Amino acid sequence: MYRPRSSFVAGLYTCNDIQGLTADQAAEIAHYAECHADLEFGWHVAQDLAGNNIPFPAFLRGDDLYVWRAYNYLKGSEDTAIAGAVALTTRGNQQITNTIKALLIADNTTCEYVASKLAIPVEVVTAYEKLFFNVIDRKKDRAFIASIVYPEGRIKEAMEDYLESAGIGDLMLRAGHSQGVRHVLYAAGIEGNPFDTVDVLEGAETMDKKFMAEGLIYAGLGLLNQRKNAMPIHNARLSLQAGKMGKGDTQSAGSAFGFGDVLRDELITIGRQKTEAQLRREALDVEVVVPINATEQ
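Below the sequence we write its predicted structure tokens.
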């Protein structure tokens, strides 16, 4: 699909940014890079053509139909599907948009499935995907999809302020990408908890495995000896301590209920040490570091 160049695109790079390139070559690369990464490419094409009174190209292929319809809509034609897709981009529909994006980013999702779950016309969901969040036909481009979901990498999830720094839309998008549609539908309030019927001991064993898996991977990423921003390591340690409380055939039960005891004692100990540290800071006006794994001190 053709998209006119703009002065903004041409100014992204100069010939000095990439050694050996001429200004024209740098501008060409910048133009391609912008179009390749643009999830709203279809809408921007329609805007550029309509806004500059450029006739829409005579050839149409597959998804170009929705770009052509958007072009005609911008020229004054009525189109309820395009209007509905545009309406989804407004602030008042942010929660619905977050849900649509999170469902679309999940593996093997179709616009028909999303439409059925949200009770939105299929044409509206399809138009939104083609014009504003074009990911379905790019699922095999794993690096591109990952750059959308984790622009700073997945290791950000290990940071202590992760929930404060990540928006709700980011959390839902990552849930859809890594866990699938069931987590998204629950987070959006559309369906119930898919784990409601899970056996307690089975659930505890699954959590233990998750804690351990996260701890192992982040240990390999260099967080093993860190006190701050190393929650996966901390959780794995707690899981190990709880597991040691199990005896013989009661290993699973000991792990399930021992973890709660360990966590409770850990919170009490950390709370006491934080209080003592605060008193020392006030008395000495110095910063005292409280260890994350308080029970090991």
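The CA atoms of residues 1 and 96 lie 29 Å apart.
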